[in-house]
């Protein structure tokens, strides 16, 4: 069955955050819009809905209230030290980075506040680096948690689109999967594809690919906002760079299955240039979700700095690969060990203070904007409810009252046969000896003491230094950690208006890209590494740019 061909001013492919922003901007400019996605309507908001809602700002009121001195110059130093742009094709990503830094220091916060988006007052310090001043990492805390987490970021743009639907200015079509971008005289003029069988699946749950019809849409401008490849392990492994070692045989999945990269090949077939596909962002603190929504569903621990981090053999990770310091550096190191997992050895006191879980559903207090629950869960004694659920039910968690019992259980755990138990014991005892003095040669202990000089860390993110075997801090906890797929840092090469570029560097008439499909801008605004809080921001900025330009 072929549906009646449709026409519109702007066609947006993908209703994640970037697609919603682009559609809202085109609507605001008075254009007619069609918004399509391969999933059922329950997934409006896409991957962003599941996120923790972290946003990167520069010299924000929240930072200033916490005593943080930030500037565009310092943030630029951090961004470019992190990105390490080194390719000719990084010309547009560099420009996007410069433009985004101005956005993050300028109108970004006010633009969101006008739409009702608020922020948690304590600013987090993610990707701390630990190298020199011009090396990777954030020099100061910049991770602003949205009040309402990912759903709170999505809400105003979803509301704008739904209002446009009620007004008859936008048509939203679920279960439409694009197979081809159509072209006329070198210009992209829309898309055609298949209509999938309707589904009542809940958000994030995989859906069928049963085809029940075909569609064709003609558009003056087409915006690809279809996300990355993190839900497709075959594509992740195919793109895996040699500099990160061999891809893991076993990985957890940090995004729903529909994040499948299907529009990359479709866009390339229409002439779009794909760049930096070997740049990617995967986490090394993944834990198996005891209550999964999608296949191999993993959750990331957002760790504070105190846990002892060991590889699969029980060898401590080298400086500065401490929890929360350098995600990609840690991934590259662990891929040299020949094993797909590593371990935290920690205490319940550290877990209570320092373990946060990524995901809107793992943070009901922040997501639900529930101040009472927040005070009970974040500031009261004991772990949050979701963290406690993992302690009780998570297959990767081991809890024991003494070190010898913990070591025995670690040894018996799947993958534990690789552990050198004697070495783990030595590492724990040696680390605890260092705690007994105000002086130390242990860089991690020195860093965590320093971090407690920041009010935000002392209040909710860094436990008071203590011996892991201190009975008052117990019981002891071991956590088996896995590689967790998440973000594509490369994608469709675009100019600052979000126009897709061809192999000759010229804009393809009628074709735009935004969000993760465009590497969050330009085909890779982050370069090799991300500073965190910059993925949602990249969707906001690139979606806004593409939506405004497509509406001209």
TrEMBL record:
It comes from the Bacteria. Keywords: Flavoprotein, Oxidoreductase. GO terms for molecular function: oxidoreductase activity, acting on the CH-CH group of donors. InterPro entries: FAD-dep_OxRdtase_2_FAD-bd, FAD/NAD-bd_sf, KsdD_DH. Residues 9-536 form the FAD-dependent oxidoreductase 2 FAD-binding domain. PANTHER family: 3-KETOSTEROID-DELTA-1-DEHYDROGENASE, KSDD-LIKE STEROID DEHYDROGENASE RV0785. This is FAD-dependent oxidoreductase 2 FAD-binding domain-containing protein.
